[in-house]
Amino acid sequence: MQSSDTPTLYEWVGGIESLSRLTRRFYEHVHEDPVLQPVFAHMDSAHSEHVAAFPAEVPGGPASYSESHGGHPHMIQKHLDRHLTQEMRRRWVELLLATADELGMPDDPEFRSALVGYPEWGSRLAVINSQPGASADHHAPMPKWGWGEVKGPYRG
């Protein structure tokens, strides 16, 4: 159980300012990456700020993404029929973690465990949801991630 004086992951990372900086720099790298650039070639300039609201909400920040963009069902919808591969998924995670290092985000083991765990979990769902025949669950709850989440097996 988390004590009341333990910060959320959102607070620990530095809030929306830190996550916005991360997503902005990450997508700058994506535009230069030969594996990921084709996936995001048609991304508009506001994408990184829009996306920052998602990783802000998941670790305990405000519910901005759910309120303004439709929550997890909307994110699932964005991945349908994108035909993402394991190579793309691995590169996405690798680039995200390298960007966190570049920006000097917290590097304590507990935070980094969560920072590795959530993108691994979420990117694997993105690959599953991007394959032919996948459909959006319009009632999928917004994921919540904290200091040591253990999830049950995926039963998609």
From TrEMBL:
Name recorded for this polypeptide: Globin
Pfam families in the record: Bac_globin
Keyword Heme set for record: yes
SUPFAM superfamilies reported in the protein's UniProt record: Globin-like
Disordered as annotated region, ranges: 133-156
Statement: the UniProt record of this protein carries the keyword Ribonucleoprotein: no
Keyword set, alphabetical order: Heme, Iron, Metal-binding, Transport
Upper classification of the organism: Bacteria, Pseudomonadati, Pseudomonadota, Betaproteobacteria, Burkholderiales
Gene3D superfamilies named among the record's database cross-references: Globins
